[in-house]
Design goal:
The protein is α+β, with helices and mostly antiparallel strands. About 20% of the residues lie in helices and about 40% in strands. The protein has a single domain, classed as Thiol Ester Dehydrase, Chain A. The chain starts with 18 loop residues before the first helix and ends in a 6-residue tail after the last strand.
């Protein structure tokens, strides 16, 4: 069952009329998300949530989700939030992110939420939050700030 954390905070107008199909198609092609068994559980202009269920092979030595898994899903959630607002034919590329781990990622699943803070022609700034869900309780376990680059489609001559 999807676990939507919060409604979108800011209204954004997508520049691509097919933004949803573009984002979902990109997500389906991303090998890393497939490897983790990740699911996109919410998508709106400027917002994306990705969920990963607990598996032993995604953990560190104490049985918590590994920080690398946490970083991977929040990077993608922020990236796809940004891609919802990019022009048709564009691709997204992360150029920088900072992740603070706030608590052990101890849960039945993780939910990463990406939100666009500011969008421009070439750069998009996002914020990401990750929650570990255990026994119906959400624990805020990580926060991220990210810079994305819009890889514009090449114009035909």
């Amino acid at each position: 069952m999807p676990h939507t954390l919060r409604p979108a905070q800011k209204d954004f107008e997508p520049r691509n009329p097919d933004w949803e199909a573009t984002v979902r198609g990109s997500f389906a092609r991303q090998g890393a998300m497939g490897l983790l068994g990740a699911e996109m559980v919410a998508l709106a202009p400027g917002h994306c949530e990705i969920r990963v269920r607990y598996r032993d092979d995604l953990t560190q030595q104490n049985g918590f989700f590994h920080a690398g898994m946490t970083a991977t899903i929040v990077d993608s959630a922020g990236g796809y939030a940004g891609l919802t607002l990019m022009p048709a034919g564009s691709e997204v590329l992360t150029v920088e992110f900072k992740l603070n781990l706030l608590a052990p990622a101890d849960g039945e699943y993780l939910v990463a939420e990406g939100r666009v803070l500011k969008t421009g022609r070439n750069l998009v700034i996002t914020r990401g939050e990750v929650y570990a869900i255990k026994n119906g309780k959400a624990t805020h376990c990580a926060t991220m700030q990210q810079t994305l680059m819009t890889m514009h489609a090449k114009k035909e001559k």
